[in-house]
Amino acid sequence: MQLQYLYLSTNNLSRTIPDALGNCESLEDIKLDQNFLVGSIPASLGNIRNLDVLNMSRNQLSGSIPKSFGDLQFLEQLDLSFNHLEGEVPENGIFKNATAIHIDGNRWFCGGPQVLHLPACSITHASSSTKKKGLIVLKVVIPLASTVSLVAVIAVLSLLYKKRQKRKFMTIPSFGRSFPKVSYNVLARATNGFSASNLIGNGKYSSVYKSECFQDGNMVAIKVFSLNTRGAQKSFITECNALRNLRHRNLVPILTACSSIDSDGNDFKALVYEFMPRGDLHKVLYSNGGDENSSNLNHITLGERLSIVVDVADALEYLHHNSQGSMVHCDLKPSNILLDENMTAHVGDFGLATFKVDPTALSLGDSNSTSSIAIKGTIGYVAPEYAGGGEVSTAADVYSFGVVLLEIFIRKRPTDHMFKDELSIVSFTEMNFPDRVLEIVDSQLLEELILGLETQTSINEKIVQCLTFVLNIGLYCTKTSPNERISMQEVATKLHGIKDAYLRRN
């Protein structure tokens, strides 16, 4: 059988769960919650090795939890709350992760890992005479203490339940069968225990490691989230939700995701991407410790720069206008643009991405508003309207793209020391546009323009025109008012035309 998802929630189903369900080995997600199912949970469900999510809450199930559930390597969410279950809780696998299981509202559980704070099973198996003696002592000797303790336990359990319910929906979305399963142990081995020698990048919420020994031997980048950092969990879920619905040649290709526990029983979450050998655009632009005036900086030709901005524009056009509901990236910058061996650009890091609810509002030139959630973009690339509490919008992505475009051709960071007071990379470009374009572009471009010419004053007029057109698009993208900015559809169309004209010239 090839059944992958079984959703039968809230259907008034009754009777027992058939043992034959365990024969559906391709199942990844089972939801039977809010029915009237009775009897015990079939141990055969432990045979479904690819199972990610199992929800049987709010039924009338009885008996104990099958020990085989602890052997399900890829099980990420288990909800058995509000049944009539009892007995010993397994100690291995998902049961080590207190935030991934929900067993509230049952008769009596014991044992299990220490993180669940359940009583030892020996207490539940004590003789009836021992229980009676203990009960008499409690009633006669410490009635007040027991009452206070009961109130305290109820309060703590209530808080824990609310917390778990809140985190219940913070589980990894299913990526489908096309994405391979991967465990913590596999990723740990592939990175030599996440050693510093494999570290290729650090961010606020994560660290990125390279690996040469993942599955078929291809090089990959493994993004490990720092779950102790506030917001990292949300960033992981946001990126998962974004990437499972997106497919485009200019987005960083994701291979799989891992939501598990590490060797110490702590939550572990990671994303595995195709490795980009040329690194990120920021390192390519400023590979000498931030000295953008150095003559030893990586050489990037005019053609390569045009290709990069076209690639990024195509990616944003897809996010804004062609995906299933428009998406705002919210943090476009050179370090989030990765380059493969052919210098093809791929936009990555969707940890702050926001989905647009109303796709009918995609008229050209409007601000394409989404919601007024807080933005945590990067200084220098954030649209000015966000400073006043403006709404998340695709127009803000357009602004960030415009800054990145100007940076690529001028080769100065928007946070460069020269940009202070009222001077920014945008106003700097405006002041020198169009008559002094050659005075502000990267000196490497000037060297390329005069190469092979008889005199340095004979710079080809068409090349100057190409640079002027490109910088003009950057200025249109960075208009102060969101409504004055052009859409990414128009940006992509114009840049393709400029690139094609440049290639025809050569």
From TrEMBL:
Domain of life, per lineage: Eukaryota
Enzyme class label: transferase
Cross-referenced SMART domains: S_TKc
Main location group: membrane
Pfam families attached to this UniProt entry: LRR_1, LRR_8, Pkinase
GO molecular function: ATP binding; protein serine/threonine kinase activity
Residues annotated for ATP binding in this entry: 223
Known role: The processed protein kinase Xa21 chain released by protein cleavage after X.oryzae pv. oryzae protein Ax21 detection translocates into the nucleus where it can bind and regulate WRKY62, a transcription factor. Confers resistance to the bacterial pathogen X.oryzae pv. oryzae (Xoo).
Official protein name in the record: Receptor kinase-like protein Xa21
